[in-house]
Design goal:
Helices cover 43% and strands 33% of the residues. The protein is α+β, with helices and mostly antiparallel strands. The longest helix is centred in the N-terminal third of the chain and has 64 residues, at 2-65. Residues 1-23 form the signal peptide.
């Protein structure tokens, strides 16, 4: 009898330990799930902030390129502002932001981007770097791009970003074009070497 009672008590203890262990595992799983969700939210927020910064830089870049003496300046400015507002609204309202980094060697594979060309020029004494990206209409669904370029001049390397938006796409090519004015003190563009480091693509939905 005593032996049976002892066995029952021992069984009850084992059951309690197993139940406690299961509850602890369940609690640990809940904590792990919450941490994963929090990390995902932080990644989305970080990508959203980065995309907003790129959208703002794209607006400033295109604003600087507008010809204030043109007869269409008012219309051009209105269109630019409208595109910028739509772009930032899309970023802010997005529940998910996809960020993809494409290296130069990956462009040659032609999966997302088919070709990228860099150009250099002078405008009113300022050195300008332009970027042209050709893409596949079947696979390309991104709204915003950042072309990260290194410019080598007089044994110094300068990091320059050129921002492109799908709102400025030439659908007939299809391609994206854009340029940015830099502060690099260049006297002769022929002495500048440009290298594409990577292109960052953003898609929001």
């Amino acid at each position: 009898m005593k032996k049976k009672l002892f066995s029952c008590i021992l069984l009850a203890v084992f059951a309690c330990v197993a139940l406690f262990s299961f509850a602890a595992c369940s609690s640990d799983q809940n904590v792990s799930d919450r941490l994963d969700a929090l990390e995902s939210d932080m990644d989305t927020l970080e990508a959203k902030v980065e995309a907003l910064e790129a959208a703002n830089a794209n607006f400033q870049q295109q604003l600087a390129a507008l010809d204030t003496s043109s007869d269409t300046f008012a219309d051009d400015l209105a269109k630019l502002t409208s595109n910028y507002n739509n772009l930032t609204a899309s970023v802010q309202n997005a529940t998910r932001i996809e960020r993809v980094v494409v290296k130069e060697e990956e462009i040659k594979q032609g999966n997302l981007l088919e070709h990228c060309s860099l150009y250099k020029s002078m405008s009113e004494g300022k050195f300008v770097i332009s970027c042209r990206v050709e893409y596949s209409t079947l696979l390309f669904h991104y709204q915003l791009l950042t072309c990260k370029v290194s410019a080598n001049y007089n044994q110094q390397t300068y990091a320059v970003n050129v921002y492109l938006s799908r709102a400025d796409a030439n659908e007939s090519t299809p391609s994206l074009n854009g340029g940015t004015v830099t502060d690099i003190p260049v006297d002769n563009v022929d002495n500048v070497t440009l290298n594409l480091e990577e292109i960052v693509l953003y898609r929001f939905n």
